[in-house]
């Protein structure tokens, strides 16, 4: 079975989870059911904004595996930073469960609560955090919403027992430093775009120093990925008689990073699980060093860069 990774709170997460972003209605339920029942997955990564949590829940129940044996993550959308429990309750109702194993702040970007919830909004007025105003104590003025207040609400739903662990996603070191000084609970994870072309070595070692586990989304390079045909990746795969996808995932697992490959194609769902474990066993120090050098050697690339109007503090993020 898959390796597990331990959080700073003592709880464990299966190191391989099924991603569900861009998994379409009509195909995601059966992919989730297959992943759990046939392919051995015990970890599903979801989000309110993916719009498919109802079907994900159906897939989980159809697998016949008890809820308590499955690790479920979901994420708070930006329009809900001022009302965390409301978003969480919607997710719980959609998934058909009464708790989550892990709940994350999806992006460090509070959006206008009256906004349109769009993933990549086009109307600045509807998404800039500068429009989120809250009464500032006794003074009758407005101020920007503060991420540390979102984190307070994340801590509150944890204390209530609705989620077992809390964490963040898409947080640079700068953004983490906005919440850590006042945090009672250190985030269990930071979920990031991580793969051989965007390894974020510096951020990963910072997270390690803080006891925050990195999780990799788009570990295969998302859709139409050039990673799967990268000459070096293919060479390493051929040498170990594995698939490129296996190498990409095994490389991250070897660094203690939790991987969240997305697929709705049963043979891929299956091979991403078994193949990444095989790669973890086969990759040696020189393979890791070779793969570590790809980004620095000129192949650095991010695939997921929504045009947020605030500086997230990431390296290699396109200029606003
Ligand atoms: P599909 O869901 O149609 O099978 P990432 O996890 O990096 O976001 O990558 C997801 C993309 O990679 C999806 O388009 C998915 O397609 C595809 N994919 C997932 N697993 C594999 C694999 N083992 N080989 C090739 N493509 C894959």
TrEMBL record:
Active site: 50 (proton donor)
Record domain NADP-dependent oxidoreductase: where: 16-294
Entries under SUPFAM superfamilies matching the protein: NAD(P)-linked oxidoreductase
Site (Lowers pKa of active site Tyr): 75
A Pfam entry, by short name: Aldo_ket_red
Signal sequence, renumbered to the chain: none
Molecular-function GO terms, alphabetical: oxidoreductase activity
Residues the record lists as binding substrate: 106
PROSITE patterns reported in the protein's UniProt record: ALDOKETO_REDUCTASE_1 (PS00798), ALDOKETO_REDUCTASE_2 (PS00062)
PANTHER family xref list: ALDO/KETO REDUCTASE
Protein name, as recorded: NADP-dependent oxidoreductase domain-containing protein
Species of origin: Laccaria amethystina LaAM-08-1
Organism ancestry: Eukaryota, Fungi, Dikarya, Basidiomycota, Agaricomycotina
């Amino acid at each position: 079975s898959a390796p597990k990774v331990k959080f700073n709170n003592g709880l464990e997460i299966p190191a391989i989870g099924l991603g569900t972003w861009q998994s379409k209605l009509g195909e995601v339920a059966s992919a989730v059911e297959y992943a759990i029942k046939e392919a051995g997955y015990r970890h599903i990564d979801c989000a309110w904004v993916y719009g498919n949590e109802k079907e994900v829940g159906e897939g989980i129940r159809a697998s016949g595996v008890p809820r308590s044996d499955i690790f479920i993550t979901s994420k708070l959308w930006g329009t809900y930073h001022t009302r965390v429990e409301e978003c969480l309750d919607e997710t719980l109702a959609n998934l058909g469960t009464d708790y989550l194993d892990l709940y994350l702040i999806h992006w460090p970007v509070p959006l206008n609560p009256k906004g349109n919830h769009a993933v990549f909004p086009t109307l600045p007025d509807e998404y800039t955090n500068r429009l989120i105003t809250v009464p500032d104590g006794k003074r009758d003025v407005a101020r920007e919403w503060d991420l540390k207040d979102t984190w307070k609400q994340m801590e509150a739903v944890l204390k209530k027992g609705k989620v077992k662990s809390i964490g963040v996603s898409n947080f640079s070191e700068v953004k983490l430093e906005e919440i850590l000084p006042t945090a009672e609970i250190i985030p269990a994870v930071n979920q990031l775009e991580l793969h051989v072309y965007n390894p974020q070595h510096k951020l990963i070692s910072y997270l390690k120093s803080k006891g925050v586990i990195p999780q990799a989304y788009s570990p295969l390079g998302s859709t139409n990925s050039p990673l799967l045909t990268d000459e070096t990746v293919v060479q390493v795969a051929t040498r170990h008689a594995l698939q490129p996808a296996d190498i990409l995932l095994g490389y991250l697992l070897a660094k203690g990073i939790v991987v969240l490959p997305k697929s709705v194609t049963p043979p891929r769902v299956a091979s991403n699980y078994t193949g990444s474990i095989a790669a973890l066993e086969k990759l040696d120090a020189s393979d890791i060093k070779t793969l570590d050098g790809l980004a620095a050697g000129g192949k650095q690339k991010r695939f997921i860069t929504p045009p947020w109007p605030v500086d997230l503090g990431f390296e290699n993020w396109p200029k606003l």
